[in-house]
Amino acid sequence: MATQTKTVLHGYFRSSCSWRVRIAFALKGIEYDQAPVNLIKDGGQQFTEQYKKINPMQQVPAVEIDGITLSQSLAAIQYIDETRPGPRLLPADPVKRAQVRMISDLIASGIQPLQNVYVLQKVGAEKIQWAQHFIERGFQALEPMLKQTAGKYCVGDEISMADICLVPQVYNAQRYKVDVDQYPTIKRLNQTLLEIDAFQVTHPSRQPDTPVDMRT
Amino acid sequence: MATQTKTVLHGYFRSSCSWRVRIAFALKGIEYDQAPVNLIKDGGQQFTEQYKKINPMQQVPAVEIDGITLSQSLAAIQYIDETRPGPRLLPADPVKRAQVRMISDLIASGIQPLQNVYVLQKVGAEKIQWAQHFIERGFQALEPMLKQTAGKYCVGDEISMADICLVPQVYNAQRYKVDVDQYPTIKRLNQTLLEIDAFQVTHPSRQPDTPVDMRT
User: Fold this and answer.
1) What pLDDT, in 10s, does the model give residues A114-155?
2) Which member of A165, B13, B82, B120 has the greatest number of CB atoms within 10 A?
3) Are residues B128 and B192 in the same domain?
4) Strand order in B8-11's β-sheet?
5) For an interface test with A, which of B15, B17, B57, B66 has the most A Cβ atoms less than 10 Å from its Cβ?
6) Looking at chain B, which residue has its C-alpha nearest residue A101?
């Protein structure tokens, strides 16, 4: 009954956290509607009263699913993993699950929040150097960690939530001119993952709200 | 076999993320050794080569358990929840689990990283106002969210990871002079939770590394 409601992703083509959810949906084969929220236009559509009711944090993504609204990407990803069939996004083994969550949280708590659009707006003129600093700081920790956990993917040989977090963060790193060549494991994993259909069709350059001049 | 290794928490009395793990250990009744890492002394003991091997991110906490090291608090908390007996830290119901994770991540990704000691050091002179801004922004979102999910505790009537995240974040808010009275649900939940033994014995004012003049 609850699963008959339509799944809606409120997101933005260029938001790395929105991209995470799009990848998870694609890997699981979940159909959903996209409700674009333009973070730049009109001073930011996330600040409207209407959107604030959907996500009081005034950020993307927010996922309407099964009659609830989930406004943190990793909570949404783990919810669909626990309630939907399809490939596991977290491994069955508790140690591997913990490693997947550790890598995901290093990115989701340790890097992404510090180069978020609303934080960089507050930083002001120094924002590019600020973003580079925190992404590089994070990648310097992530690289040795991934060297220990990675197989073909971030943790062993199965795609997981860690991979879902990694690729959008590398995209952001490149946007802020971080030299990803310095991190060979991150670089290799990113390249491998970008070959996969679920990462390609959900790419920021190919969304309904992607501006024409940014499409590929 | 693996569980015979000693569990060690590398933490700091005043770190809110370390406190989260201490609460989880206390709720589960897990015995552990504390290995204090003084974030201030000698320029920060987290920057030593020795500690960098334990946590390349050079932050606390890091948990050595079952032969692995977990360096993100929520990954560690969910690992012990999935591998140890005792009260559940995440509810069995998938919707409630998702709400617990959403609230936990709002704090762990949306608030805490922006008022972290190493971020505030980079902010410089404006650091108090910066911390206040991001804590208030987060609490303004958290308050209506908790109004919907809370019973006696953050999500319904069972203590969960969301409560484990809330109390240390309120402690930080008070440290940075945020007026918590503006958030009646947050205030009420914090007061209720601080009555509980697992929150009291793990309080920053009562740890082995708490300076004498900060003890209560």
Assistant:
1) 999 889 988 988 999 999 999 999 999 999 999 999 999 999
2) A165
3) yes
4) B33-36, B8-11, B62-65, B68-70
5) B57
6) B75
Same domain, B145 and B165: yes
Residues from chain A that touch B59, judged by Cβ atoms under 8 A, are 110
Q: Residue A24: which H helix or E strand, with range?
A: helix A16-28
CA distance B207 to chain A (A): 25
Shortest alpha-carbon distance between residue B96 and chain A (Å): 10
Q: Let me know whether A100 and A177 are in one domain.
A: yes
Name every residue whose Cβ is closer than 8 Å to that of residue A211 and which is 6 or more positions away in sequence.
Answer: none
Question: In 10 A of CB A95, how many CB atoms?
Answer: 19
- Cβ pairs A/B, distance under 8 A: 119
**For residues A60 and A72, is the Cβ–Cβ distance under 8 A?**
no
Q: Is residue B159 part of a domain?
A: yes
> Over the stretch B114-167, which tens digit does the pLDDT of each residue have?
999 889 988 988 999 999 999 999 999 999 999 999 999 999 999 999 999 999
List the single residue in B82, B105, B138 with the smallest CB-CB distance to A97: B82
Q: Kind and range of the H or E element at A74?
A: helix A73-83
